[in-house]
Design brief:
The strands form 3 sheets. This protein has a 5-stranded mixed sheet with strand order 1-4-5-6-9, with helices on both faces. It has a two-stranded parallel sheet with strand order 2-3. The relative contact order is 0.15. The chain is α/β, with parallel strands linked by helices. Helices cover 38% and strands 14% of the residues. Helix 2 crosses helix 4 and helix 8 crosses helix 11. The protein contains 12 helices and 9 strands.
Length: 341
């Protein structure tokens, strides 16, 4: 995602012509000289033993072992699910908040971008069972949100009374086309926990994919293709085994082949097989899913394996997907300065 807008999008096709972004990661991004970044830098330097005036030279001369230990120490103090080291706004490679750079020029010609159905589960604390707990989560992870911001978020990311915060509440994958939606229901969680999972998922992975697709579809002469990988459990990273299959981790051959053909078509021809091109007039994306197969209980979730797995899904309207995802992404983008995205 950074390369799409690197140097203000002035690189044309010198970096690449076509880009594939699977689960594009957009963490909170701060200016390189901000207090948050400087405090982290000094904490790292101190952990290495370089807390003096010539800090940079000291760090450059430090042993790798010392840097590794200091890195682990700083990372261990980060919030659960948050990476300690992230890109920073330097005014050149990253001119401003990444969600805002997409309003300007773009590098390359076309993009194939997508997300998984359950991106946020692995990065969100799994103890959020009340509205108060969701509020506390937002305040801790996104401390720049005002009281008004929090109220607005909770009006968009909410759960009805009939979807309970209970371990016994039925958990199932949503269709994406009708209620209940991913806002408060999934195969992994329900209620306020799913609200939190989905909020992190959309602000960090899903909406960046939407924004990237929209940026390329607006640009004259560019093309945009978008997809969602929905094969259960569709966790972050679960898709990798399908387009880069490994004998050590076998997956359904049919779904894997469909994914590989789409990627290969985009690499070779600039078009991902028979997946739809996304335009403002026809905001279609490919929903890659599977049906059938033998269920295997993995504890927190169920996977389905051959024999009997068949490719499912197809083109869907990305704008209205999961109860109006485009609307929620537009809303989150309006809070870019508070969310630091």
């Amino acid at each position: 995602m950074i390369h799409a807008t690197a140097y203000g999008g002035t690189q044309a096709n010198t970096l690449f012509e076509n880009a594939i972004t699977a689960s594009p990661f957009l963490p909170q991004t701060f200016h390189y000289n901000s207090q948050v970044v400087l405090e982290q830098y000094w904490a790292f330097a101190q952990a290495v033993g370089c807390a003096r005036l010539d800090t940079l030279k000291c760090l450059q001369a430090a042993k790798s072992e010392s840097l590794i230990v200091a890195n682990a120490e700083i990372a261990s103090k980060s919030l659960s699910g948050v990476f300690a080291w992230k890109p920073v706004i330097d005014g050149t490679l990253i001119p401003q908040l990444l969600s805002k750079t997409l309003d300007g020029q773009l590098n390359g010609k076309s993009v194939l971008t997508g997300n998984n159905a359950n991106e946020g589960f692995a990065f969100t604390p799994q103890n959020i069972t009340t509205q108060a707990a969701f509020t506390a989560y937002l305040q801790l992870y996104f401390p720049r949100l005002s009281t008004e911001n929090l109220t607005l978020i909770q009006s968009v990311y909410t759960t009805p009374a009939d979807i309970l915060d209970s371990a016994t509440t039925p958990k199932f994958a949503t269709s994406g086309l009708s209620a209940p939606t991913a806002v408060n229901q999934s195969q992994l969680s329900t209620g306020h926990q799913q609200v939190a999972n989905n909020f992190y998922s959309e602000v960090t992975f899903v909406c960046p994919s939407y924004w990237l697709a929209a940026a390329y579809e607006r640009a004259v002469g560019n093309a945009s293709f978008q997809y969602q990988f929905s094969v259960t459990p569709a966790l972050h990273g679960f898709d990798v085994g399908f387009y880069f299959p490994s004998p050590a981790r076998p997956v359904d051959a049919g779904v894997s082949s469909a994914f590989q053909q789409a990627y290969a078509g985009f690499v070779m021809e600039g078009v991902p097989a028979d997946w739809p091109r996304k335009t403002e007039e026809s905001p279609m994306m490919q929903n890659l899913n599977a049906t059938g197969g033998r269920p295997v209980d993995m504890g927190l979730f169920t996977v389905f394996v051959d024999p009997g797995v068949q490719v499912a899904g197809g083109p869907v309207d990305a704008d209205i997907w999961e109860g109006g995802r485009k609307m929620r992404c537009n809303f989150l983008r309006s809070l870019a300065d508070e969310l630091m995205i």
